[in-house]
Amino acid sequence: MQQLWIGGKATPSRDGSPRVIEDPATLEVVDEVYEGTTADVDAAVQSASEAQTHWRRVPGVERARMLHDVASALRADRARLSELLTREGGKPRIENLDEVEWCAACFDYYAEIARNSHGSSVPPVAEHQINFTIKEPLGVVGCIVPFNYPLLLLTWKMAPAIAAGNTVVIKPSELTPLATLRMLDRCTSPLPHGVANAVTGGAAVGEAIVDHPQVACIAFTGSTAVGTRIAAKAAARLARVNLELGGIDPCVVFEDADLDVAVPGVAWARFLNAGQVCTSAKRIYLVEKIAKLFIERLVEHVKTIRLGHGMNPDIDMGPLVSARALQRVEDQVGRAAAQGAQVLAGGHRQPSAGPGHFYAPTVLTGVSPRHAVVCEEVFGPIASIQVARDAEEAIAMAARSEYGLGANIYTSNLTWAMKAMTEIKAGTFWINDPLTDNDAAPFGGMRKSGMGRELGEEGLDAFRETKHVHLDFVPEKKPYWFPYRRRADEIPS
Ligand code: NAP
């Protein structure tokens, strides 16, 4: 049984019950954690709050050294962390090894940029004055994380938050808490006790963090529905929020695209992590000229995707994370087929891959914006394809959405690429290379896909306030102070 992580040590829940964590590929029990309670959240917030009074004063150079040490500890523990990520979430181990490395790189990145960024000087308005800004931490940051990239999406919050002098209280997904607890136990020992705390459990734990009066900021990644609820609650007490929400990202393949690149690119961008990626290619638009050939080649390619347990090195795709997720995908495909969509590949569960939540990679054509698979987020391995008359129509179709997380296109035609980039609302726009993130570049969504940005300098500023300091180094009484009668002649008659 794994314990909560509070005040730098494994801590039993005050009155929480146990919760079983299942391997989604085998349905075997991997471990147990506590279903945390409001009292546990309060203890974690107190610990974070006490630690923050010291942590915010630690010099930037020292904080940077500790963050680099966390990065080294993550790399040293990559074998076990990646295994836990696979056993609790189902992703292939190779993807989880990458996830751990990306976390380490992100800690290294924020160690450096936070130590080199602390405000700036600004021109004064009069003689013998100096004006400058300093960046201050917010206090305690609540980090609420989804199941699909448990360590990476935590790191995108935790690394900049603590680099800026905040402390954190983490709530992992109820489905995937094990790697997070391991990371806190094994990899955060360079940090003073209380800087990072975690409470496991479900939505009630998340709500207790959002409602806690000592939590200054909530950094949330998850669905638009939950994010909207969190934004409303946080607004009621004027707590800050950073919201990374759902997406129904478009992907456009133009007629000049090199299909040797576009076909495997689209397949990877849609079926990576069994389609459980916020920025995966969920609405695919093909220009008519290449549509038939592209679809034939995609269907062939999809047949080569090997399903199985993520610990097996000879597989490409694992299971969906839960029975609920599997059922939802099955329903979405069923409804699309009933509304006239053609299922060209997959369209069924895949029990031959194991007893867990496996669904075959699926290709659907004949869909339109009235189908739920196009206008609702499908968090599973379903490629929904629509065909456009020409480039103009493809761009217009791709641009039609209430969401705006990412978009990816395939073309070497500069005019189409820049037209699409201008027309499509998206926080990230990928051309010929989908889903590549960069620690130095901001990541986030427009419209219903969220507010605020993670990564880059914006990701650091999400966890800082700016204080303006005005200094007059020759103290003297000012002529514009009281009494105003001295200035009566300045008033126009
Ligand atoms: P989710 O159901 O919204 O859950 C996200 C986190 O919020 C989990 O830890 C969840 O806890 C917690 N939570 C649930 N209800 C809550 C409440 N009322 N108050 C506070 N916290 C609450 O999302 P998910 O199913 O884990 O993840 C899939 C979604 O995340 C998709 O929509 C995907 O697009 C989005 N996503 C977005 C990004 C991005 O960067 N924009 C990245 C990855 C995923 P429990 O799991 O314990 O219920």
Q: How is this structure best described in words?
A:
With 493 residues, the protein is of the alpha/beta class. Helix content is 39%, strand content 20%. The chain is built from 15 helices and 22 strands. A seven-stranded mixed β-sheet has the order 14-15-16-13-12-18-19, with helices on both faces. Helix 4 runs parallel beside helix 5, helix 9 (259-271) crosses helix 10 (288-303) and helix 13 packs parallel to helix 14 (414-423). The protein is globular and about 85 Å long. The termini are far apart. Bound molecules: NADP nicotinamide-adenine-dinucleotide phosphate. NADP nicotinamide-adenine-dinucleotide phosphate binds at residues 144-148, 153, 171, 173-175, 202-203, 206-207, 210, 221-223, 226, 229-230, 244-247, 278, 377, 379, 405, 445, 450.
Key terms for this structure?
six-stranded mixed beta sheet, 15 helices, 493 residues, 39% helix
Ligand inventory: NADP nicotinamide-adenine-dinucleotide phosphate
Outline? globular
Q: Helix segment count?
A: 15
Strand order of the largest sheet: 14-15-16-13-12-18-19
The tally of beta strands, per DSSP, is: 22
Rounded mean pLDDT is 97
Protein structure class:
alpha/beta
Give the % helix: 25-40%
Rg calc: 25 Å
Distance between the termini: 82 Å
Strand content: 15-25%
Largest sheet: number of strands, sense, barrel closure: 7 strands, mixed
Unreliable residue stretches = none
